[in-house]
Amino acid sequence: MNDRTGLVDRRALARTYDGGAYEDGWAAVLDYQAVMRYASEHPNKGSYAVSSALEIPRGRIRPWIDSESKPDAVRALETAANYGWLEATYGDREFVALNTLVANIFSGGAIATENYRPSFALNFNGEDSHVVDALDATGIEYKFTHRDDDDRATEVRPSEDGPVLGRVLAVLGAPVGPKADIDSISLPWYLEDAPSETRKMFVLAYVTNRTLHQQNKRTVTIQEQRPQSYRDELAALIEDVAGEQVTSGKQSVTISVDATRSLGI
Known about the structure:
Strand order of the largest sheet: 1-2-4-3
Structural class: alpha+beta
Distance between the termini: 42 Å
Oligomer: single chain
Radius of gyration: 22 Å
């Protein structure tokens, strides 16, 4: 596993998993790595000898040695590494896609509490929505749901590796569970130090999903049921990116005419 440092923290990702016999998932990762390293250096020693040498209960490590089993957190780290997510940082193709997907969780998606599987509602562009382009850029497989249901919005959901992607997005600051129930919700931490292009991409993805064009008005409004502190934070981000006035009010954020023109919306 490459140790290049990206924006997705390995420890935080591992700790989204139940550690089982461990206090957290990262402890399981460390023990697994130690066991595999020792076993490779002493190929003739079995699980009992490895257990004694490392002072780790044999019942924990025997499946790792005898049947090539792995802790869930280890498999997730390997999966994330294979997609290039662990090494990704500002400007990398992989992070551009992740940034867009985080914006879509905030503005038109959700991460399931029970298994971290993400889902994304399509905007007015349907299956040509930018979220589909972002998923294509990750290389992850996905499927569309509710295509023929007139009462529900069509969604796109990553399939096999979806829970790992959801955990990566959560580590980057995407909310998990019903967003309306999160009193302390705030924008992703990485935006604070992000270059202007990353911040702009986040804003454009967000605004494309959520803006309402009011008849006879040239301003654009985003309806937000979340706390006032979140609306203030969102308005400040959009204003910083647009360089023009954006205001927050009760249950909404209003983007001025000049700001909409600057953003190209």
